[in-house]
Design brief:
InterPro entries: AGC-kinase_C, Prot_kinase_dom, Protein_kinase_ATP_BS, Ser/Thr_kinase_AS, Ser_Thr_kinase_AGC. With 477 residues, the chain is of the alpha+beta class. The protein contains 17 helices and 10 strands. The strands form 3 sheets. The protein has a 6-stranded antiparallel sheet with strand order 1-2-3-5-4-10. A two-stranded antiparallel sheet has the order 6-9. The chain has a two-stranded antiparallel sheet with strand order 7-8. The N and C termini lie far apart (113 Å).
């Protein structure tokens, strides 16, 4: 019996050992061969055989039954070859099963990765699980032009609300090296909400552009109106400056300096109230900021112009320049370049003389403006806090709370049938921007360039229709 003690072969070496079995025992008959085969099967299999083993057993029995007492040498070695063939079939079946399991595991991992990626995008970019896209808005017409593209009047298709949408070309942003500026503006806007600021509702992007959806201001900007009016009255100027002050006071309470207060960045709603916009170069206050020198030279404070550390007082200097311009129709320091303006500032301190005060303007108005345009920050009104402006005699008994609640009638009401912008100026600047866009558009094909704008998206719609309940901090009206 020892000569037929073989396993179902798993290698070529096992098959060779089986061929060396005792050939004479094969002639003992069909029943003996069947018994031997079954004994060895049971020795090496403690559990019920699989369907494959049943098939192998059946073949082995049929092979044994076909033999006779005078089997030849050829028939005695045919059994191992049959067994070897069946073991290879078993290998193929198991291999196929392994491949199927591996495919299923890979597919499961891919599905899990997609699910995690989708969850990450929702948690970080789309908190309300709504992906804002360009096709969610009706683009009506262009109402302005900026350094990076157009400003559109748009209508939200779902809620029928009208907004202003800044469409900013990524190619222009890259060309002007202003990625940090636009990302900074989006970040600061998302942390501000006030009735005298232009507030943000959505931010999104596509391959070519960034989009900011903001409050729509039908009244146009103060640059447009000063160009038409040349000057404003004292009551109009005081009202404008009070609106600007409330917006600045809120920004400063959040440790933010605007740093670019000028008529182009001050817009009117249809009722004549002024709001602050364009926070592209706004910054969170930090002690060492001498290198932050961006701004518009005609409205830039001397400490910024001379690369010195600066604080909130730079915004009050710009407010004084605007008051000076509204009163006299010109800026206190002018020049064709930044250097010429800086030289004028260093040469002398400009003040409104008594003889220069227009008719129907008070001495208090001139004093208020003069104290805002002081070259030394420590001498400037507001250096020691915003209460210095509110407590000035020019604003004596001024109804601050009613202004905040927008319960006053504005002394200047913009045209109600117009959008109050110069279409000719938009056309000129748009042509200049298009040339730069074409020159730099190819860069947008790089994934590394697109990655610079990661995280720009914002959906603030859930707060869009809530009434503003904020109160001015520490204010005595």
């Amino acid at each position: 019996m020892k000569g037929l003690n073989y396993k179902f072969p798993h290698s070529r070496q096992d098959s060779g050992q089986a061929n060396r079995g005792d050939k004479s025992l094969v002639n003992q008959g069909n029943q003996g061969a069947q018994n031997i085969h079954n004994n060895r099967w049971n020795e090496h299999n403690d559990h019920s055989p699989s369907p494959l083993m049943h098939a192998m057993q059946k073949i082995s029995v049929q092979s044994s039954q076909s033999t006779s007492a005078n089997h030849s040498k050829k028939s005695s070695i045919s059994k191992p070859k049959q067994t070897q063939q069946m073991s290879f079939l078993n290998y193929l079946i198991l291999k196929k099963e392994d491949e199927e399991q591996e495919k299923q595991a890979i597919q499961q991992q891919q599905n899990q990765h997609k699910q995690q990626q989708s969850q990450f995008m929702q948690n970080n970019y789309f908190p309300n699980e709504v992906i804002v896209q360009r096709n969610m808005f009706n683009f009506l017409y262009v109402i302005g032009i900026g350094g990076f593209g157009k400003v559109w009047r748009v209508e939200h298709k779902k809620n029928a609300q009208t907004y202003a949408m800044k469409e900013m070309s990524k190619a222009l942003i890259i060309a002007k090296k202003s990625v940090n500026s636009v990302m900074n503006e989006r970040s600061i806007l998302s942390n501000l909400k006030h009735p005298y600021l232009v507030n943000i509702y959505f931010a999104f992007q596509d391959r070519e552009n960034l989009f900011l959806v903001l409050d729509y201001m039908q009244g146009g900007d103060l640059r447009y109106h000063i160009g038409r009016m040349r000057r404003f009255s004292e009551d109009q100027t005081r009202f404008f400056m009070a609106c600007i002050f409330l917006g600045l006071e809120h920004m400063h309470s959040k440790n933010i300096i605007h740093r670019d207060i000028k008529p182009e960045n001050l817009v009117l709603d249809k009722n004549g109230y002024v709001r602050i916009t364009d926070l592209g170069i706004a910054r969170v206050l930090r002690p060492d900021n001498a290198q932050d020198t961006s701004g518009t030279p005609g409205y830039m404070a001397p400490e910024v112009m001379c690369r010195q550390n600066h604080s909130y007082a730079v915004d009050y200097f710009a407010l004084g320049v605007i008051g000076y311009e509204f009163m006299l129709g010109k800026r206190p320091y002018t020049g064709r370049s930044r250097k010429e303006i800086r030289d004028q500032i260093l040469a002398k301190q400009v003040q409104i003389k008594r003889s220069e005060i227009p008719d129907n303007w008070s001495l208090e108005s001139a004093d208020f403006i003069n104290r805002l345009i002081q070259r030394k920050p420590a001498n400037r009104l507001g250096f020691n806090g915003p209460q210095e402006l509110r407590q000035h005699s020019w604003f004596k008994n001024f109804p601050w709370q009613k202004l905040y609640n927008k319960e006053l009638k504005a002394p200047f009401i913009p045209h109600q049938t117009e959008d109050n912008f110069d279409a000719r100026q938009i056309s000129i600047e748009d042509e200049e921007n298009n040339e730069l866009i074409q020159q730099n558009a190819i860069m947008l094909r790089r994934n590394s360039i697109q990655a610079l704008f990661n995280g720009y998206e914002l959906d603030n719609f859930t707060q869009a229709n809530e009434p503003i309940k904020q109160q001015l901090n520490n204010s005595n009206y």
